[in-house]
Amino acid sequence: MKKTLVLGATPNPERYAYMATIRLKQHGHEVIPVGIRHGEIDGLPILEGKPEVEGVDTVTLYIGPARQPEYYDYIFSLQPKRIVFNPGTENPELVRLAQARGIETVEGCTLVMLSIGAY
Q: Any idea which fold 4-115 has?
């Protein structure tokens, strides 16, 4: 199972970050939701700010490219093995920076990847 940090988590059940957090948990992955709004998702507290988390395999992004630069250092501090760029989060600059650090980058949808067994 892959410890996954959901960046852009929200307590709004209509948002994809919310749905992805639930599906990741249902598939047995350890999930750390991180967002800017206080709340919880399926019993998991949404952590605010840039919390220290160890052992992250995957960061799955749910924040747009315009807001991502303030998180670059944070993402790299987590030392993930891969970053998933969900639809609307694609960012060539972050892809280049991540790949230069040996981090796998995937442009895809976490929900689809889980549903087809490709996560």
A: Rossmann fold (3.40.50)
